[in-house]
Amino acid sequence: MPDEMARPLIRRGGGEAGCSGRLEAPASDPGAPVVGILGTGDFSRSLARRLVASGYRVAVGSRNPKRSAALFPEEAEVTSQLEAVGLADLVFVAVFPEHHSTLAALKPSLAGKTLVDVSNGLSVNRDGPSNAERLAELFPESSVVKGFNTISAWTLQVGPRDGSRQILLCGNSCSAKSSVMQLCRRMGFVPVDMGLLSSSLDIENLPHRLFPCWRLPALCTLCLFAFFYAYNFLRDVLQPYVTAGKSVFYKMPIQTVNATFPAVALVTLSLVYLPGVCGALLQLWRGTKYDRFPCWLDRWLTSRKQLGLCSFMCAALHAIYSLVLPSRKSAHFKLLIESKQLQEEDVWVDAEVWRVELYLSAGIVAFGLLSLLAVASLPSVANAVNWREFSFIQSTLGYCALFVSTLHTLLFGWDRAFDPARYHFYLPPTFALALVLPVVALLGRLALLAPCVARRLGLIRRGWERSRHVRFARPDDVCCNGLEDASYV
Ligand SMILES: NC(=O)C1=CN([C@@H]2O[C@H](COP(=O)(O)OP(=O)(O)OC[C@H]3O[C@@H](n4cnc5c(N)ncnc54)[C@H](OP(=O)(O)O)[C@@H]3O)[C@@H](O)[C@H]2O)C=CC1
Ligand SMILES: [Fe+3]
Predict the structure, then answer these.
(1) What confidence tier does 469 reach under pLDDT thresholds 50, 70, 90?
(2) Is 86 in the pocket of ligand 1 (CB under 6 A)?
(3) Alpha helices, H only, 342-481
(4) Which of the four, 57, 195, 319, 348, has the lowest number of CB atoms within 10 Å?
(5) Which ligand lies nearest the alpha carbon of 84?
(6) Mind listing the pLDDT tens digit for each residue in 215-252?
(7) What is Dmax (Cα atoms) for the chain?
């Protein structure tokens, strides 16, 4: 350590921020290592605050220290770039990569030290070299570690959420990397070693990815919406126009949309539970859980949470659209016309009244359950429940939501699927189409609950393998003999 590092930079005492996440009064540890930061921008300010609160002494290097000093906590020393790098063994480069070359004069002072490159590029860089590799070329006598670029200045300031915010790191020097990892932990983050500096290109490209895990579920929801909207348009708007010259195009903005959202919500919800059934059937067929699922099933399984949230959004929009339906002008006109034409006994049909009461009630319950599932999928809620509770909410309550939603649709459709007059353009009613996948998912789940199947699946999920035990007993024997643990067979 250089002599200057013994100089106490901290003027106030306090505790560590690491675990609580909140910035508290800093530790007064004059022996604490000095961390250098080059640059005085947003990232540098947030980093300095967190480092000070985590008990480090901080030296910030600026081209114009006087101008920037007031923006930093008083415990941090804001000085010239040269002086700052002279004080610290570990220096963060919080300067945009375009300006890295302007730091070349610091080369001798940075020799043998660790440089942390926090920079991101303007766009995805597929060909390389990465900013960190360029920085390593510029400072060959320093050890460059890439990291911290995947978190925002704001996250640095407010601290890691749920105590588990990961920081991806890579670098060629093990000792440099381990000192940065230690610093990460002390700041309350979880460092993840991504290997050599050649991984820095991937790490730099990560912040440019726009909702990567939402692409497939969003596309799926959009395609379903387009399909069901076109289907409803054909049946409910185009058919009356073509066959009877009746113009009902006014239905397009609300009624057709509101006939589309419930179908999309139900099909998307069934897509949350179908891959689980497919996976279970595949495991039963293969007689093991150790063979990898095909890629398409893997991707499908990992998209379930997003599919569930898309389903929730469609259900919520269906609920809102349904509430505004009676307040439309066209609904008022229709009501007036019908009330003049019909007597009370014509309008009041007991079975019809019951159907509407029941399907509305089922719809409300289904929406309540879906809201619960959506809330339970938030990381802060999911982390607060244990595994059993989480699986109860997502599996048992999830299937309940699927069942009640299906019931809502069945009650809505009633016997209309069997009425030939409802087959406009020979197309079955939308609800009948929307019911196919949910019914398959529910029947599949029911089949898996059959005691014989459930027991065999239970064995497979506890590690039983047909290929290892088939010489001694077939799974049928295991299940029918009621053997609890096939490893004893
Ligand atoms: N902001 C964020 O949320 C995140 C930022 N990052 C990365 O952190 C780095 C800094 O970002 P940010 O703090 O937002 O940027 P700012 O523009 O706010 O700050 C950059 C700082 O670089 C310093 N600097 C040094 N040399 C030059 C030069 N030649 N020209 C211009 N500025 C220079 C300046 O400080 P001075 O004038 O005092 O020398 C300036 O304040 C970037 O590489 C960015 O990609 C990464 C993740 C998140
Ligand atoms: Fe509905």
Answers:
(1) low
(2) no
(3) 344-347, 350-376, 379-382, 387-391, 398-413, 430-449, 451-461, 466-469, 475-481
(4) 348
(5) 1
(6) 999 999 999 999 999 999 999 999 999 999 999 999 99
(7) 99
In a domain, 480, yes or no: no
Mean pLDDT of 430-445: 96
Which of these, 163, 442, 433, lies nearest to 276 by C-alpha position?
Answer: 442
Q: Does the beta carbon of 71 lie inside 6 Å of ligand 1?
A: no
Domain total of the chain: 2
Of 208, 225, 244, which residue sits at a domain end?
208
Q: Is 99 in the pocket of ligand 1 (CB under 6 A)?
A: yes
Q: pLDDT-based confidence at 126, cuts 50/70/90?
A: confident
Q: Last residue of a domain, which of 208, 243, 259?
A: 208
Q: What is the CA(302)–ligand 2 centre distance, in A? A: 28
Q: What is the pLDDT of residue 153?
A: 85
CA angle 344, 348, 350 (to 5 degrees): 150
Q: What is the 420 CA–ligand 2 centroid distance (Å)?
A: 22
Half-sphere exposure of 204 (CA within 13 A, CB side): 27
On whether both 69 and 120 belong to a single domain, the answer is yes
Whose CA is closest to 466, among 200, 211, 285?
Answer: 285
The answer as to whether 470 is a domain residue is: no
The domain containing residue 333 runs over which residues? Answer: 212-449
Q: Which two tokens stand for residue 29?
A: 């540890």
**CA dihedral angle for residue 148, residue 150, residue 155, residue 156, rounded to 10 degrees:** 10
How many angstroms does the Cα of residue 321 sit away from the middle of ligand 2?
10
Instruction: Please tell me whether residues 119 and 216 are part of one structural domain.
Output: no
Q: At what angle do helices 304-324 and 295-302 cross, to 10 degrees?
A: 50
Q: What percent of the chain has pLDDT over 70?
A: 88
Regarding whether 274 and 194 lie in a shared domain, the answer is: no
Find the ligand nearest to 105 CA. 1
Q: Backbone phi, then psi, for 41, in 5-degree steps?
A: -80, -165
- For residue 153, the CA-to-ligand 1 centroid distance in Å is 11
What's the pLDDT at 471? 52
Question: Is this prediction's pTM over 0.80?
Answer: no
Q: Specify the ligand 1 atom closest to the Cα of 44.
A: 13
Query: Would you state the pLDDT for residue 159?
Result: 74
Q: Are 358 and 413 contained in the same domain? A: yes
Nearest bound ligand to the CA of residue 317:
2
**Per-residue confidence band for 275, with pLDDT thresholds at 50, 70 and 90:** very high
461 lies in some domain = no
- 91 and 54 in a common domain: yes
From 434, 369, 428, 426, select the one nearest 397 (Cα to Cα). Answer: 369
Distance (Å) of CA 67 to CA 50, 71, 455:
21, 9, 72
ipTM of the complex: 0.96
Q: Which residues contact 265 (CB under 8 A, 6 or more apart)?
A: 311, 312, 314, 315, 318, 405
**Mean pLDDT in residue range 156-180:** 84
